[in-house]
Amino acid sequence: MLHSYSGLTSVREMTCIKLIFSQRPCLKVGRLVAAAFTSCRRFHGELVTRESGALPIIHHSKYVCDLPPNHRFPMGKFPRVLHFLIKDQVITEKQVWVPEIASKDILGCVHTAEYLDSFINGKINEQEQRRTGFPWSEGLVRRCRYETGGTVLAAEVALQRGLACSTAGGTHHAFPSYGSGFCLLNDLAVAAKYLMGISSPKRRILIVDLDVHQGDGTAFIFKDEPCVFTFSVHCGKNFPLRKQQSDLDISVEDGLEDKEYLSTVAAHLPWLLETFRPDLVLYDAGVDPHWEDELGRLRLTDQGLYQRDLYVMKTVVSRGVPVATVIGGGYTKDIDKLALRHSMVHRAATQVWRECGM
Ligand SMILES: [Zn+2]
Questions:
Q1: Does the structure show a pLDDT above 90 at 43?
Q2: Distance 329 CA to ligand 1 centre (A)
Q3: 300-353 confidence digits (pLDDT tens)
Q4: In angstroms, how far is CA 151 from the centroid of its own chain?
Q5: In angstroms, rounded to a whole number, what is the distance separating the alpha carbons of residues 45 and 54?
Q6: Which helix H or strand E contains 21, and what residues bound it?
Q7: Residues 267, 282 contacting (CB under 8 angstroms)
């Protein structure tokens, strides 16, 4: 058997609470578009130039920071994603929204005051730094805070326009009180908690995490939160060794290829949307399930990843549910090749935007 549906047996009891049908009607895409020209001052960011009716892209030049030479993390990919999107005329600069830095208050929705104090002020000890994979620096703190601000802004804009894509984000291994696996702040959790908390009744948020690694930090953070549903499809033998329990975990075997992977996602996403009835989907479009990825163990192709992204966004948007996307993990030494791979989610989103008349 190429893959197992072990997650089906591990859906928590909490899931039945989360699956209660929402009484509120679904927003339709047309209504979202009608609301598109509200003032951007209410967002945690600004539009670089003039108002644009095209797909919103969230990007900040401070998504990057310096790392020691030969560091394993491909930091240079973030500006290259935007570079290729503009160079290939997928987007124009008018589509770019610039996020604010995530405030301590917003980060405090998820992270403990003690952890924020030690991370922001450089009191992380060596052992803790090793766990994160990064040497601490002020630049690293700034980068992570802008990245989290980017995901918050993407989610806010998506609620208004139906779809929005950041050029970073997906730091799903960060826990409330510590960082892990290249993740210092959990951007997905911060965005979900913030947007859930400022609405009444609370928004229902579905996190679709298709990074090859389990979204363990996110799963832990929302394990007792009925308004957020965590769905993770990941390689069972990959990091993290000790998995947390998402609301739905689909653990797949090494070597899974496009067709089986896509059918695995398609077997679950529609019924999750129909039963949980989210007000917003946060989509982690990690490209580390790719066959060439240094840290993945699956065998997806570029085409397979594009089809996956297209399928997820079309399936969600066609039900009138807004989607915000983050790029998630991707690890290849060739930065340009990797950035092009990450840009597929924005290319697929552009196609969805056009085909769905958004
Ligand atoms: Zn990953």
A1: no
A2: 4
A3: 999 999 999 999 999 999 999 999 999 999 999 999 999 999 999 999 999 999
A4: 7
A5: 17
A6: none
A7: no
Cα(36) to centroid of ligand 1, in Å? 33
The pairing of beta strand 248-252 with beta strand 228-235: parallel
Is the pTM higher than 0.85? The answer reads yes
Ramachandran region of residue 249, left (φ > 0), alpha (ψ -120 to 50) or beta? beta
DSSP-assigned beta bridge partners for residue 235: 252
286 CA from centroid of ligand 1 (Å): 6
Q: What's the CA gap between 81 and 330, in Å, rounded? A: 12
> Ligand 1 centroid to 75 CA: how many Å?
14
Element (H, E) at 45: strand 45-47
Q: How far apart are CA 308 and CA 273, in angstroms?
A: 16
Q: CB–CB of 232/215 below 8 Å?
A: yes
What phi and psi values does residue 337 have, to the nearest 5 degrees?
A: -60, -40
- Going from N- to C-terminal start, the domains of the chain cover 6-355
What is the 48 CA–ligand 1 centroid distance (Å)?
30
| Secondary-structure percent of the chain, ordered helix, strand, coil, rounded to 5 | 40, 15, 45
The residues facing 45 across adjacent strands are 99
**What's the 325 CA to ligand 1 centre distance in angstroms?**
15
How far apart are the CA of 223 and the centre of ligand 1, in A?
20
Distance spanning both ends of the chain, measured CA to CA: 40
The secondary structure of residue 255, as a DSSP letter, is T
Question: Are the CB atoms for 290 and 331 separated by under 8 Å?
Answer: no
CATH 3.40.50.720 assigned to 6-355: no
| Tokens of residue 23, six digits | 């009484």
